[in-house]
Amino acid sequence: MQQDNRNVPDWLLERLALGELDAETAADVRRRLAAESRSPDAIAAAVAASNREILAELPPTQTAAAIRRRAAAAATAPTPVRQRALLWGAPLALAGGVALVLVMARPTPPVDHYDGIKGSVGVSAPRLFVYRHRANANEALADGARAARGDLVQLAYRSRGGGYGVLLSIDGAGKVTLHWPEKSNGAAPALKTSGEVRVPAAYELDDAPAFERFFLVRSTEPFSVATAVEAARALAAQPSARKQALALPPGFEQISLALDKTHAGTKELP
After folding, report:
1. CA 249 → CA 29, 225, 269, distances in Å?
2. pTM of the model
3. Of 146, 211, 159, 155, the residue nearest 189 (C-alpha)
4. For residue 37, is it left (φ>0), alpha (ψ between -120 and 50) or beta?
5. Using CA atoms, how far apart are residues 21 and 77, in angstroms rounded to an integer?
6. Cα(264)–Cα(145) distance, integer angstroms
7. Cα–Cα dist 220/11, whole Å
8. How many CA atoms lie within 13 A of 206 on its CB side?
9. C-alpha 25: how far from its chain's center?
10. β-strand 113-115 against 252-261: which pairing, if any?
11. Pairing of β 203-204 and β 127-133
12. At residue 217, what are phi and psi to the nearest 5 degrees?
């Protein structure tokens, strides 16, 4: 196995403490911690204390009830918007999903597709980034990269011009997932201008076929999240959803990056 001299990132420590790593990866993390003169037991105790503090502020019964309400609402909606973001540190069994904060080295930025205001392309144009978690690193994905069910991806954006924005995706099954913000019935949040900004949680790809296409929708003026969601729903129902742009009002910018899904159950090798 190749020696890795980088410090073990926080998200990997979290997964080790929660027992979510396979035996080989866990052994590698423990080896790296020993090289850093850090104790896995002490780290596990710190993670447990952090989780207790989070759950003290929002008890598990309330967390579970909120998740059940959202799941029931999604089940009854005519065209559901999937919401995968969960509280960091909350028990994963409550939601049956994955939510981890990734602390990543910055690889070479991936290629995305910009469609927006003339004259904005260049250094000041907004950007969308998609990273895939690997055992010892995180891989920057370009448009058209191969992905599979179970891949854990992290979204990030850059908007040096600020403005307001929404991050969402559509897939080959015609479904829409709202990645940020969490709720679809409010206003789009303000975009930070401080370089590359990661969304609060990572997301595990499901078994939807063909593709998963991510969008950053931006405007210099405030707008409702529903504006972006409805445009995504309309596009997701089209045969050309993999390539076609969102039908947004004038003044909007959109940046997209699509991942092509491999056969169900088949994952690419690192």
Report:
1. 49, 13, 41
2. 0.59
3. 159
4. left
5. 35
6. 16
7. 33
8. 14
9. 22
10. antiparallel
11. unpaired
12. -105, 125
| Residue the block writes with tokens 């206003």 | 187
Task: Supply 52's token pair.
Answer: 């207790």
Please answer whether residues 127 and 158 qualify as being in contact, where contact means their C-beta atoms are separated by less than 8 angstroms. yes
Rounded Cα–Cα distance for residues 4 and 35 (Å): 10
Q: Which residue has the tokens 């004038």?
A: 250
Q: Round to whole Å and give the CA distance between 234 and 49.
A: 45
- Strands annotated E in the chain: 81-82, 113-115, 127-133, 138-140, 145-147, 152-158, 164-171, 176-180, 196-198, 203-204, 211-219, 252-261
Tens place of pLDDT per residue across the chain (270 aa): 444 445 776 666 776 777 766 677 778 888 888 888 888 888 777 776 665 554 555 454 444 454 455 444 444 444 445 544 333 333 332 223 333 333 333 344 445 555 554 344 444 689 999 999 988 888 999 999 999 999 999 999 999 999 999 999 999 999 999 999 989 999 999 999 988 999 988 889 999 999 999 999 999 999 999 999 999 999 999 999 999 999 999 999 999 999 999 754 444 444
Structure tokens at 149: 């069910």
Alpha helices in the chain (DSSP H): 10-17, 23-35, 40-57, 60-76, 225-236
Q: Which residues contact 64 (CB under 8 A, 6 or more apart)?
A: 94
| Angle subtended at Cα 18 by Cα 15 and Cα 21, rounded to the nearest 5 degrees | 50
